[in-house]
């Protein structure tokens, strides 16, 4: 599917729930979080039906997200069913890792190609401050187990806040020295509670990492996946990546869309919910009509975000990241 800016849209992030077992400070409110009733969340059958439509239109890669996708029952079966669809080449999953150990073996058997594990620090006490939960050692154990599987691409996602220490950054970088995985540093976007936090940008992080480890060598893009730019460091088994939507806007290369847990097709992270596909599904709309609606939505995908411009209520996304699909 080619959009109006001649971008090949072949990647979708599908949120299966807005619920999470952690309470990260930049993602979930400390109190008063409101979750969707179960009846408003897409069923697995509805997700599979939409995935068939997406695949017909050229979507090849599917990322399962949440909230925390592993809190939803029988998520393993969904992974297997999506992976078996004609036209779908890769299925990956983003998780906070706290429940990963108990599902990892079954997820691999279902055909999971990769896992992104969110982790902002290797300091157990700071982890507890950020996530409001005491799950650090479960996550660390899951990472150690995941890297044992050569067929599984493992990525660590870190969002460095302004108060993230140099020691925290170096500890995370060390994971890539010792393991065949990618550590990616992601710039905070001003969405939901993220508006309340300052972040460290790519230049600051690269300067710190270069000072500690030497020059970073760019790794040529494979053309698979998303916006991260990867670098190698001599003596490292893994790589370092940067996803810098704020300081290095990459919208002209964006190849993705999102499906929220309540069935809205979002074509840009910044803007409010777009096409209500759930209503179409539940009104017994035909696949051909669904595909036309999806194609129209994709074609109209915005040229890029405009976070540097004034925010207008009713135009920019107001939901938390857990509600959108992280």
Automatic annotation (TrEMBL):
UniProt source species: Lacrimispora algidixylanolytica
Cofactor(s) this protein requires: [4Fe-4S] cluster
Catalysis: reaction(s): GTP + AH2 + S-adenosyl-L-methionine = (8S)-3',8-cyclo-7,8-dihydroguanosine 5'-triphosphate + 5'-deoxyadenosine + L-methionine + A + H(+)
Keyword Iron-sulfur applies: yes
SMART domains the record matches: Elp3
MF GO annotations: 4 iron, 4 sulfur cluster binding; cyclic pyranopterin monophosphate synthase activity; GTP 3',8'-cyclase activity; GTP binding; metal ion binding; S-adenosyl-L-methionine binding
EC number, as in UniProt: 4.1.99.22
This protein's name: GTP 3',8-cyclase
Quaternary structure annotation from Swiss-Prot or TrEMBL: Monomer and homodimer.
Lineage of origin: Bacteria, Bacillati, Bacillota, Clostridia, Lachnospirales
